Amino acid sequence: VAGLRNYRLRGTRHSVGMAVLDQLARELAVAEGWQVDRRCCADVALAAARGLELVLLKPRRLMNINGLSVASAAEIYNLRPEDIYLVHDDLDKTLGKVAIKLGGSARGHNGVQSCISALHSSEMTRLRVGIGRP
């Protein structure tokens, strides 16, 4: 599960992917387990939920190159694109509304496009979190 974000813009709506992963880590009781993984330039926490092993990933890069971190983690943890969930902001959704999208285009989102390019696939599941327009 990768929370796309602008590493330098913490606390903004565009980094909602990080906030969602922080909350998920708290609910899975691994919030204290975040570690910097220099191999993929990201904060990583390992968790288990409902019989699944999860890799929680918060890239430490700019949004438009988050895909480099996601692709590196996929290689390290032997994940296929269809195993990956991307959590990201969506300007076209009302603040707080969420939707799940299975594959498809990036719909103009630079972080998602970076993941598609780096993984050579658009098969990732996306959790789109509405941030509304200013």
Automatic annotation (TrEMBL):
Keywords for the protein's UniProt record, in alphabetical order: Hydrolase, RNA-binding, tRNA-binding
Q: InterPro entries, per this entry?
A: Pept_tRNA_hydro (IPR001328), Pept_tRNA_hydro_sf (IPR036416)
Q: Name one Pfam family in it.
A: Pept_tRNA_hydro
Tell me where on the tree of life, at the top rank, the source sits.
Eukaryota
Entry keyword Metal-binding: no
Record-level Gene Ontology MF annotations: peptidyl-tRNA hydrolase activity; tRNA binding
UniProt protein name: PTH hydrolase
Q: Which organism is it from?
A: Nyctibius bracteatus (Rufous potoo)
What's the encoding gene here?
Answer: Ptrh1
